[in-house]
Amino acid sequence: MKSITTHVLDTALGKPGEGIETILEILEKEGPIHQEEWKEITKGTTNNDGRIPGFVPDDFKVQPGVYRITFDTKAYFETQDRESFYPYASIVFEIKNPDSHYHVPLLISGYGFSTYRGS
Hints:
- The chain is mainly beta.
- The chain contains one helix and ten strands; from the N terminus they run E-E-E-E-E-E-H-E-E-E-E.
- The strands form three sheets. It has a four-stranded mixed β-sheet, with no helix packed on it. Strands 5-4-6-7 form a four-stranded antiparallel β-sheet, with helices on one face.
């Protein structure tokens, strides 16, 4: 499957991050970081497995470029009455080969997050 997928794992609880609003964008205009222009591709909410099935629309053709996935972590932690330091987590990554599958997971806790290129 040639697409972009994601999932969230709450490492403090050892379970999927459910109910996290997520946005996928592509960089349309490069420049200094405060002058970049991003275009929204899609958005969704993680399910009880921390995933967003069908996250990227079928009519979107993945192309080479710089992408950003942003997760609303503040709202997620607030619904659980848990403190957090990061109001959102943004992951910026570059796709050079659009014929590959790109899985971009997020590992979160109230005071940290990390990511990696998954399979």
